[in-house]
C-alpha cells in the first residue's frame, strides 16, 4: 500500500467484561471511542491493513507511543514485546517457510495496547491474526488486550516449532542418506543454517524483555494473564534451545559431508595418480626407443619389439605392486 493512501480498517471487535468479542463497523467503533468514560472491563480492538496512514479520526482517541511510529521505518523487523509508558508495544512476525530452499515470505504486525484499546496493523495477512479472529468468532473469551497479545505470541511460537520440525525432517533425510553412503550436496545444509539464524531474530522475541514486563507489569494487567505471558516466554525459550541444538546438528552434518567429500576427492586423486604412475614406464620406454637416432638397442633384432614390451610390462607390474602395498598400508 502506498504511504499516501489512508490505512483501511480491516475489522474491529468490542470486548465485554466477560471477554466476549463482537464485531463493530467503523461508525460504531468511533462512537465507542468518543465515549468520555469507558466501562472498566470493556476494551476495543482495531486492526488496520497498513501501519502507515492511520487517519487522525482514529489517532485522536488513541495515544500511540513514539516507539510505534519509529519502528515502522526500521529495516530490521525483529520480534519484540516492550513496555511503553502505561501500555505495551509489540512487533510480531509470521513466516511462510519452505524447507526446499525457497525464500521465506515474511509478514509483520505492529501492536500497541493500553487498558481499554488495542491497535494493530499488518503489512501482509498473518495466519496468527486469522486464527485469533477465528477463536473470537467461536466465542473464546479474551478478558483484556494483553490476553490477545499472549495468544498471538503462542501462535507465533507454534509457527516457530512447525518450522523447526520441517528443518529437522530435512536434516533427518540427509542423515539417512549418509547412512546409506549416498553423499548429498553440502550446499543443501547451508541455507538451513542461514534460515535458522534469521528466523530466530524474526520470530523469537527477547526473553529478557518479557521477563521485565512480568516483573514490572502495567497496573491493569492481571496475574493470570501474566502467568500466560510467562508461559509463552518459556515456550520461546524452549524453541530457541531447540534451534541452537538443531544448528549444532546441521553443522556436524556439514562437517561429516565435507569429510566424506574430502575422502572421495583424495581417493579419486590417488587413483588418477596411480594410473599415471603405472603408465609412466611404457611412456618413458616408448619415448626413448622411439627417438630416430643411432645406437637404439634391439633396432636390428627381430624380437626387439617383444623385448621392449616385456621390459615395459615388468616396470608397470613393479609400479602396480608398489601402489598396492601403499594401499594395504593405508
Short structural description:
The chain is built from nine helices and seven strands, in the order E-E-H-E-H-H-E-E-E-E-H-H-H-H-H-H. It is α+β, with helices and mostly antiparallel strands and 330 residues long. Strand 6 and strand 7 (117-122) form a beta hairpin.
In words, what does this structure look like?
The protein has helices spanning 26-33, 56-59, 66-71, 127-137, 145-179, 187-203, 207-215, 223-289, 304-329; strands at residues 9-15, 21-23, 43-48, 80-84, 87-96, 105-113, 117-122. It is an alpha+beta fold and 330 residues long. It folds into two domains: 9-260, CorA soluble domain-like (Beta Polymerase, domain 2, 2-Layer Sandwich), CATH 3.30.460; 265-288 and 305-329. A hairpin with a 5-residue loop joins strand 1 and strand 2. Helix 4 crosses helix 5. 25% of the residues are buried.
Q: Which architecture of the largest domain does the CATH hierarchy give at level 2?
A: 2-Layer Sandwich
Strand order of the largest sheet: 2-1-3-7-6-5-4
Q: According to CATH, what is the class of the largest domain?
A: Alpha Beta
* SS content category: alpha+beta
Order of helices and strands: EEHEHHEEEEHHHHHH
The overall average pLDDT, rounded, is: 80
- Poorly predicted regions: none
| Count of separate structural domains | 2
Distance between the termini: 66 Å
The largest β sheet comes out as: 7 strands, mixed
Number of helices in the DSSP assignment: 9
* CATH fold group of the largest domain: Beta Polymerase, domain 2
Tell me the β content.
Answer: 5-15%
The Rg value, from CA coordinates, equals: 35 Å
How many DSSP E strands?
A: 7
The helical percent reads 55-70%
**What's the CATH H-level superfamily name of the largest domain?**
CorA soluble domain-like
Gross morphology is: rod-shaped
